[in-house]
């Protein structure tokens, strides 16, 4: 009997979750046929954007204890649980220690703790270790074939077959396919094209002029001259990487002055850096974790039942179940944050059945969300002083902890109850207009206060400000081009008089949205052209990604569902909110859930077509 062909296109973190669930499901169910498992990815297996070749100064944004690639008992309806090491457990077993400012495999040094932020390169090593373990433990009737090439087309053909074409023309005749590609799918947008045209017109008169639509690979920033003035668009995690590359990466270093203060010792090769964003504020640092390895806040008000009740009420009152985030959801989410804030202030949990938000707490949440909204500044100097004080207070809040400090406690629940927020957003539960505002306005605020970098990054930022290396431009800036002087410009009218600044290099430090119709990926272009995929839409609004069913099956342009083709992760970011995060232990991870259910659907279908071997399954180690 001919083996069935299963293909996973993309072997980064999402492909790894599919592989883990396949290995787990096959530990309990021995198929009545052999399987050729084709793994398609030109990069290092498992790592995706976490390449182990990255410099050590680039850190993971999540503490070591809150990352795993294995299921646990919290992940429901997704197949059996098989044991596997979390990132922290693996780091301990591997022998990683902190020796000075480095993390190395050594008998000396400080042990890696649950709240340690490890280098991204070390995470890449863990991901590839997981990959190797999974392949080693696969049943003997699964034949694994690695294709170190990119896929250029996935095309449904007759008799429920799918042709997967690789670079060079090699074709796989597949029975089942999983699309788990990552950030390489993004393409240039109108902003990129406009700025690149400015650079082309300026280079003859300004040799420093350059535009980086992404700072990755981070080594690309080595081409920036110390004489250039640099502007970084964005103030979050990607911006923190760019700053690190232009300081530590060039040979500068930070000297510890006290538990919460650094001093920067420059190497002399650093350019001067200006950061800017719509909000004009640095991202809040991650507070000291006081919740333990697995602790998470459980919503009292903003529950899935609450969201469902809102949809039902809207259907009755307005004839449309879609929600308006600001009108229907934000007041209750704000109450949730206020409840945690109040309980942190008092030191004990209030009774949720009688809790009422006091005016001063309501104002505190407003200030947390938009701290500069109603402030006025005479000039840039006054604004820069405000930013410095804002960082000082944020660092103090971080050391206060994510339970004891009211602001950090209130912000941190946005991570803890993210699945409830997903329940309110996914699959067009918001109206098109509200969905667009949610992504452009609310998410940027949520990311700033709840998904910022480790607190040490903000300590570094403060030291760089004091060293005269780094500064912030004002809020609501306008980007322009000075044709006469052949430089970029920033301007704002938020001060007592108009302010502007010129610079030579622009780094766009934001996560790209995946717009299928603009993607340069040959795979996406082919599938869009053939109608095998179509952009996900909420009315006339296209949030991002491709269209899928709740079972994560791909929907074609004609509306037909491809039952043997699944898509997970970044490629479906529009239908699914916040696909970027790695699985977290004991949190019923959405990524593992989706992977498990898709794998179970495939195995069920194989069983219908080929039966199951009822003999004891002894093939899995």
Topology:
Elements: E1 4-9, H1 13-26, E2 30-31, E3 35-40, H2 87-94, E4 96-99, E5 102-105, E6 110-111, H3 120-136, E7 142-147, E8 151-157, E9 161-166, E10 171-174, E11 176-179, H4 190-202, E12 210-212, E13 229-233, H5 237-245, E14 253-258, E15 261-265, E16 272-276, H6 304-318, H7 325-346, H8 359-369, H9 380-400, H10 406-416, H11 418-425, H12 432-450, H13 455-466, E17 470-472, E18 478-482, E19 487-492, E20 499-503, E21 505-508, H14 522-530, E22 553-555, E23 561-567, H15 590-610, E24 612-613
Parallel strand pairs: 1-3, 1-11, 3-7, 11-23, 12-21, 13-16, 13-21, 16-17
Antiparallel strand pairs: 2-24, 4-5, 4-6, 8-9, 9-10, 14-15, 18-19, 19-20, 22-23
Helix pairs in contact: 1-3, 1-15, 7-8, 7-10, 9-13
């Amino acid at each position: 009997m001919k083996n069935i062909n299963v293909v996973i296109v993309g072997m980064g973190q999402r492909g790894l979750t599919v592989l883990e669930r396949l290995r787990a499901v096959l530990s309990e169910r021995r198929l009545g046929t052999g399987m050729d498992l084709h793994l398609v990815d030109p990069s290092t297996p498992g790592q995706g954007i976490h390449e182990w070749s990255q410099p050590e100064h680039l850190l993971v944004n999540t503490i070591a204890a809150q990352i795993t690639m294995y299921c646990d008992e919290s992940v429901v309806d997704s197949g059996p649980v098989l044991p596997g090491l979390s990132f922290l457990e693996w780091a301990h077993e591997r022998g990683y220690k902190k020796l000075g400012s480095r993390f190395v495999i050594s008998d000396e040094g400080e042990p890696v703790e649950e709240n340690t932020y490890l280098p991204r390169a070390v995470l890449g090593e863990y991901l590839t270790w997981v990959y190797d373990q999974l392949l080693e433990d696969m049943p003997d009737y699964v034949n694994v074939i690695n294709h170190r090439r990119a896929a250029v087309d996935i095309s449904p053909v007759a008799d429920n077959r799918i042709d997967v074409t690789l670079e060079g023309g090699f074709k796989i005749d597949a029975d089942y396919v999983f699309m788990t590609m990552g950030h390489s799918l993004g393409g240039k947008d109108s902003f990129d094209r406009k700025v690149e045209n400015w650079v082309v017109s300026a280079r003859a008169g300004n040799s420093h002029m350059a535009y980086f639509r992404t700072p990755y690979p981070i080594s690309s920033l080595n081409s920036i001259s110390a004489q250039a003035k640099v502007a970084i668009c964005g103030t979050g995690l990607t911006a923190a990487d760019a700053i690190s590359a232009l300081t530590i990466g060039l040979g500068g270093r930070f000297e510890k002055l006290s538990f919460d203060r650094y001093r920067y010792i420059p190497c002399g090769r650093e350019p001067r850096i200006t950061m800017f964003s719509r909000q004009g504020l640095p991202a809040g640092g991650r507070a000291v974790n006081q919740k333990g390895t697995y602790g998470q806040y459980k919503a009292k008000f903003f529950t899935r039942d609450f969201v469902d009740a809102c949809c039902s009420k809207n259907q009755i009152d307005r004839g449309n179940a879609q929600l308006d985030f600001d009108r229907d959801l934000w007041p209750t989410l704000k109450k949730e944050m206020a409840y945690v804030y109040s309980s942190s202030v008092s030191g004990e949990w209030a009774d949720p059945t009688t809790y009422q938000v006091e005016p001063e707490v309501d104002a505190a949440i407003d200030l947390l969300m938009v701290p500069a909204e109603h402030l006025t500044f005479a000039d840039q100097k006054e604004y820069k002083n405000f930013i410095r004080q804002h960082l000082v207070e944020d660092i103090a809040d971080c050391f206060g902890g994510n339970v004891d400090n009211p602001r950090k406690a209130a912000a941190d629940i946005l991570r803890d109850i993210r699945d409830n927020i997903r329940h309110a957003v996914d699959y067009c539960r918001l109206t098109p207009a509200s969905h667009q505002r949610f992504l452009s306005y609310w998410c940027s605020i949520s990311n700033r206060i709840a998904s910022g970098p480790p607190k040490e990054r903000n300590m570094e930022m403060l030291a760089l400000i004091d060293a005269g290396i780094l500064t912030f431009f004002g809020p609501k800036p306008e980007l322009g081009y000075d044709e006469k002087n052949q430089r970029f410009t920033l301007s704002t009218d938020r001060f007592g008089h108009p302010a502007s600044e010129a610079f030579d290099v622009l780094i766009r430090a934001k996560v790209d949205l995946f717009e299928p119709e603009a993607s340069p990926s040959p795979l996406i272009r082919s599938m869009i052209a053939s109608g095998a995929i179509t952009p996900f839409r909420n009315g006339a609004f296209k949030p991002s990604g491709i269209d899928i069913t709740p079972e994560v099956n791909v929907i074609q342009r004609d509306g037909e569902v491809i039952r043997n083709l699944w898509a997970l992760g970044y490629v479906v970011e529009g239908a699914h909110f916040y696909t970027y995060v790695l699985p977290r232990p004991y949190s019923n991870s959405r990524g593992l859930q989706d992977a498990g259910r898709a794998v179970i659907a495939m195995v069920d279908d194989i069983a219908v077509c080929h039966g199951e071997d009822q003999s004891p399954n002894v093939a899995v180690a």
